[in-house]
Amino acid sequence: MLLFTASLLSFSQTIVEKSLGESVFRSGEKLIFRIHYGFITGGEAIISAHETLLNDKMVFHAKVMGRTSGLADKIYRVIDVYESFFDPANNLPHKAIRNISEGNYRFYDEVAYHHDELYVESQRKGKVAIPPQTLDIVSVMFYVRRLDLNMLNFNDVIRFDTYFSDEIFPFYIVYKGKETISIGSGKYKCFKFVPVVEPGRIFKNEDDMTVWFSDDENKIPVSVKFDILVGSFRCDLVRSENLKYPLTAKVK
Predict the structure, then answer these.
(1) What are the tens digits of pLDDT across the range 93-147?
(2) 165-202: per-residue pLDDT in tens?
(3) Mean pLDDT over residues 27-34, rounded?
(4) What is the secondary structure of 226-242 as a DSSP string?
(5) Main-chain dihedrals φ then ψ at residue 74, nearest 5 degrees
(6) CA distance 220 to 64
(7) b or e along 172-196 (b: 16 or more beta carbons within 10 Å of the residue's beta carbon)?
């Protein structure tokens, strides 16, 4: 935790307050990404969201699925699925699922969130106390999309509490301004963020991950870049479906 604190001090002293705006996504939204290592395509990722009922409550069911393809799939097959069932009003999750298949490694867990009583109940770990407004790793992304990103200043930090990998995980993202990026599907005007990651496991430095969100009303993730110990890879948007607003961030 001291490492995270020190990392933040190198970025900024400003932790911004979060205030949710209206939902910028709708039921049926789907985003398709290509995962590539340099010029080599290694897989695809799909982010989808739709309305559904959970325990007689209407929720948004968001799902992130990433899988290898081609030669990468033959060498080391990966199929990772993360799911979140969150409240449409405040984006707080009611339930999260993590289903990991990487080579011979398997991991599965379901977590129920009890925000009024401030605990989660995990199939793997049982009851764990949580801070107020705790999110899961998928609902964080949809939460960010509902913030007024135009109000941010360069190097502002947004902080979230998440429950991830059997523990409370403070999650920070640092705003790095606006940037126009070029990917396979075109040029996009974007908001640029650097999540603060933990060096030593798969990352070398705390700023080895970058995420670009579209600079329009949708604020969809357009590209994610990872610099890890064994190299660098990106997830770039290939296609979007059923967006709530026109994708005006795409530069013709």
Answers:
(1) 999 999 999 999 999 999 999 999 999 999 999 999 999 999 999 999 999 999 9
(2) 888 988 899 999 999 999 988 999 999 999 885 544 44
(3) 97
(4) EEETTEEEEEEEEEEES
(5) -75, -35
(6) 13
(7) bbbbbeeeebebebeebbbbbbbbb
Count of residues making up the chain:
252
- pTM value is 0.89
| Cβ neighbourhood burial of 213 (10 Å; 0-12, 13-18, 19+) | buried
Domains and CATH numbers, the chain: 2-251 (2.40.360)
**pLDDT number for residue 230:** 52
Q: Let me know: does 83 contact 105? Beta carbons within 8 Å.
A: no
Task: Give CA–CA dist 72/52, Å, rounded.
Answer: 34
Tell which wins on pLDDT, 93 or 38. 93
Longest dimension (CA), the chain: 51
Distance of alpha carbon 204 from alpha carbon 231, whole angstroms: 10
Q: How far is CA 189 from the centre of its chain?
A: 19
Nearest partner of 190 among 212, 174, 158, 173, judged by Cα: 212
